[in-house]
Amino acid sequence: MDALSVVVDEVALEGLDGITLPSLWIRLEDRKPKFPLKLDDCTKSFIWRSLVNNADLSFHELPEEREDIQLLDRFKDIDPETGCETQEQKFSHDRRDVYPLHVIPENQDGIQGSCVFFKERKNVTKQIRSKSFAPLVNLEEAQERYGRKLVVVASQALRFRTLIGSDNDPETKISNDSYCVLERVGRGRWQGELQSDLHGSLFKIDARKMHYLRKCLVKHELITMQSYVRRLKTGQQQHSILLLLKRFHVNRRNKYDILMEHVSDFLLQQSDHFTTVDNLKEHLNLNDKTMKRLFKNLRYSKLVEFCQYALEDLDPSAEHCTNKNGRRGLFHPSNFFSVCLPPPPPYSVSSSGPKGIPQREIGLRMNVGRLESRMICRKMDRDGVIKVNLAVYFTLKSAFTLRAKPVLFQSNLET
């Protein structure tokens, strides 16, 4: 993207509110990747002439001056070892917001977005440029005449295309409220917006309604979501969802991604890849609430499995114990871990014995989808490692059963 395209992109990302010239210079200085030109007086005059010559941009005078934007770096104080903030950051209601929310209702011009002075501001484009797009005032004259009341606004088509990207359909229809969420997320650039800030301090709506406003954007693949953990004023941690435009999405590991990696590394170092919950708690030094959430993430990711064992199986020197029903005493599954590493497909088939293993079970054991498991089975069948049979059950359902070649002679199924 060349320098002038970067300038137009920054104007479009600012939304229907538009951007003042001082705020535009701030955005360009903070641009990532870095703005290719040095922002001196000559460059600013060159940028001003390019803005005037662009037919997709218009100029408006606000009824009052707007303060300059304040930049936020929410990842500055993130500890790379834990994925958590090392100190409390300012909340959205503590930071000065120069763009208060005011959703524009449906109109015949098809304008969408948020702008508190949408009806009050004056279109001064004709005083800025001629019909031939020649500048009528230079940068110094515009700053002296309008000051921080002058804003540059991109057209609806340009703003929408900048937000959705070139891969999405420009005819996509979304509600005005969802568009304002999209506009706010786009204005955040690489920092994005926290869903808790959107529904709590900006839109001031219930979290469930914000979920449905976000759902439309996720459905059309306009935004991405990441889990985010931040520190509150009380010192406690708050879990929220970080929303980003697809073009600004960066895979960042959160707190529980790092913890799950620590758990896997710890289990792999143990004999038989096995340990107790108490040992794991002592190793990680976490409280019960964090451990509970960690267990939930581990179950969902299928990185480990929870096992249940009899006491005498674990410790032969222990006395035989029974529960109140007279059965052998078993440790609860939450008391022990066993790492769940995907076994090689041929081993999964051969270990299943002469009865074989369903194709679906291959996918479950290897933690892959249906199509991937089918491709694996076809490859093993072509290589002559396994034999595929169609088994019909009494429920009138059929399934493909896989059996390893060395145990075929033991099978009682017809081949």
From TrEMBL:
Domain of life: Eukaryota
Location in the cell: Nucleus
Designated name of the protein: Uncharacterized protein
One cellular component term from this protein's GO annotations in UniProt: nucleus
Any one GO biological process: 5S class rRNA transcription by RNA polymerase III
Membrane-crossing segments per the record: none
Keyword Manganese appears in the UniProt entry: no
Pfam families: B-block_TFIIIC, WHD_GTF3C1_N
Primary localisation category: nucleus
Originating organism: Xiphophorus couchianus (Monterrey platyfish)
Annotated General transcription factor 3C polypeptide 1 winged-helix domain residues: 1-79
Residue ranges constituting the B-block binding subunit of TFIIIC domain according to the UniProt record: 176-250
Keyword DNA-binding found: yes
The entry's keywords: DNA-binding, Nucleus, Phosphoprotein, Transcription
MF terms (GO), sorted A to Z: DNA binding
